[in-house]
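Hi all, posting the design record for the shared folder.

TITLE: backbone redesign
STEP: 1 of 1
STRUCTURE INPUT:
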């Protein structure tokens, strides 16, 4: 038997001895109904987890003060002898109880540490939830404080009460635009003394894979209040599924509806009602096409900023630097019909659908748009 098993056996042996002594003491010497009740508790708690030991012994310590105090008040020698015995037993049991409490505390700390270590091990090695659950069932016999359910160990939040919607082949939860801004405000990042009471919100929409072993991916909608000394990003909505949302209107429905409301009514930040506007929606090229419901950035007519038709040179390139530019007006009126693949829900918002969805640096480099010089285009396309 290894050292751990010996220590464990010693602990449980000691515990059983203490509880047995408490039980015998109470049954033989006490007529107090509350003590008898406690005695019954002791008898049943032998099979309980070790945390019960503390409460039983605490109770014992409290209740045994009664006979200890009464020792000095009895005059009969027989009664004195009985109570001397009681007092002696009390001291022994209190000593045992103290040992038990001390060991209990140490063991509990070790058990909680074990819980934490197991959770870290699960996260580090990509263990499946089923495998962790099976391991916990084995360990639970030797470590009763360990939970049997893996979700309890990992402190997985109960999502049964959350309003998670089934959309576009996945699940979506809307944390809220106003909630996020109000949290930023409560953390002191937005000040009531600010002269211009306007919240300017930058949005980021993108997809990210979670695991190499599955196709499951997340599509968060993130927000950040602009013009603050601290950049604080918060989650507005979160989609999870085995593929990207199949319907952009469903995916952005809650976000757009709430932004529409805030644009009209403002946002209440305790001290005042602040105006609300979207500063920009930042996405990479594929996500930008997705949000705007247009052709992909690799399509021949897929440039975000102009209407030229691209050329094929191992990939689609856009060499013309003076092509007709796309504008908010031309986009909203679908002047270039072939460019659009459907209605974009963000058109419901008061934004410039071209300029307020900026190009990120990486996708700017190989493209034609007005801000990129012809030389850059030539270098990047080897013309
Ligand atoms: Zn272009």
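Okay, here is what came back for every position:
SEQUENCE:
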């Amino acid at each position: 038997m290894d050292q751990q098993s010996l220590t464990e056996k010693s602990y449980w042996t000691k515990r059983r001895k203490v509880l047995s002594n408490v039980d015998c003491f109470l049954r033989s010497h006490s007529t107090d109904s509350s003590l008898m009740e406690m005695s019954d508790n002791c008898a049943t708690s032998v099979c309980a987890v070790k945390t019960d030991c503390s409460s039983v012994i605490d109770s014992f310590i409290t209740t045994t003060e009664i006979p200890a105090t009464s020792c000095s008040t009895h005059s009969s020698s027989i009664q004195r002898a009985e109570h001397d015995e009681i007092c002696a037993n009390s001291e022994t049991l209190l000593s045992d109880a103290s040992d038990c409490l001390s060991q209990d505390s140490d063991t509990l700390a070790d058990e909680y540490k074990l819980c934490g270590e197991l959770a870290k091990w699960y996260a580090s090695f990509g263990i499946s939830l089923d495998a962790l659950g099976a391991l916990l069932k084995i360990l639970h016999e030797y470590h009763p404080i360990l939970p049997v359910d893996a979700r309890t160990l990992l402190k997985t939040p109960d999502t049964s009460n959350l309003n998670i919607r089934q959309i576009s082949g996945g699940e979506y939860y809307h944390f809220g635009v106003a909630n996020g801004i109000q949290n930023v405000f409560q953390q002191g990042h937005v000040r009531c003394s600010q002269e211009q009471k306007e919240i300017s919100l930058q949005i980021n929409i993108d997809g990210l894979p979670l695991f190499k072993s599955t196709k499951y991916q997340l599509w968060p909608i993130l927000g950040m209040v602009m013009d603050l000394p601290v950049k604080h990003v918060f989650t507005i909505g979160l989609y999870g599924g085995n593929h990207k949302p199949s319907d952009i209107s469903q995916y952005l429905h809650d976000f757009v509806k709430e932004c529409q409301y805030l644009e009209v009514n403002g946002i209440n930040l305790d001290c005042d009602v602040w105006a609300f506007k979207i500063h920009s929606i930042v996405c990479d090229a594929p996500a930008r096409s997705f949000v705007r419901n247009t052709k992909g950035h690799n399509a021949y007519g897929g440039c975000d900023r102009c209407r030229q038709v691209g050329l094929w040179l191992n990939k689609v390139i856009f060499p013309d630097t003076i092509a007709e530019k796309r504008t908010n007006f031309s986009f909203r009126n679908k002047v270039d019909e072939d460019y659009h693949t459907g209605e974009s829900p963000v058109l419901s918002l008061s934004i410039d659908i071209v300029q307020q969805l900026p190009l990120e640096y990486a996708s700017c480099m190989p493209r034609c748009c007005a801000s990129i010089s012809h030389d850059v285009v030539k270098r990047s396309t080897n013309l």
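COMMENT: Confidence is low (pLDDT under 50) at residues 30-75, 362-383.
Let me know if anyone wants the other runs.
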